[in-house]
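User: Predict the structure for this protein chain, please.
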Amino acid sequence: MVIASNLIAEGIEDILGEVLSEGESELLVVNPTADVLESLVSVATQSDDELPTVRVIADESLLKDVVDDFIVASNAADLVEEGTLSLTTGDADGQTSLIVTERAVLSLVTTGERVAALVTDDEEFVTSAYDTYTTAWEEAPEFKLRTPSISVVRESLETELSEGVRTDFDTVLSSLQTARGDGQGLDEVTISLLVAAKNDILLYDISKWGEDVGIASKATFSRTKTKLEDLGLVDTEKVPIDVGRPRLRLKLGDDRLRQADADQLAGVAQSLLT
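Assistant: Here is the predicted structure, written as structure tokens:
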């Protein structure tokens, strides 16, 4: 199949879902907006279809901002590890967002309420665009994600801590639209500590896991724990060990958190933080 007619939808996810399911072997996504890139990762992650290889050329500052969200970054890392997604940085000079295949070029246009993909399948134009942007992608620097893939995070939570911790982590994460820690969501370190406190995990164990898997350093976990403790969201109790200083067991510090189910934990925590 080839996309030969314009597409109009309520949201960019619908456009991307249709494009990804068209049976193309490869897509070039050029100069995506933050919304396009976030939606691309979301749609690709949720798709049960065989996905094409997706090659992205995007502004570096936009990429950095988008992957500051742990949910987007960890899912993107999964797609990169699978070989489905590659991210490169390039200057598009204000050009509109494009999706380029070997058989069509789509220009994405957003109005207040709807999104359109304006399509051309003119053979000469498409060939020229495909060759141009393939070369641009090949010459563009790779954008390396520093966030671990969500698959690695989940597997390590279960093997290093417990199945219950993994389940609660997944539940909390799925209740959030974003995980940035900028007032719009809780960041990954805060989420990890709250889940650990819900499950009475040692600070040493959750911070060692976090550093080993690539979430953040032990020092970052310790600083965040202190902040949450000062705000009354977590408590600690000393656990004696045979040699050395006692370790600290994390506990939820507020009755509203203790009474909350995992899918309510983030919402309650956010209400207490604001």
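The chain has a mean pLDDT of 89.
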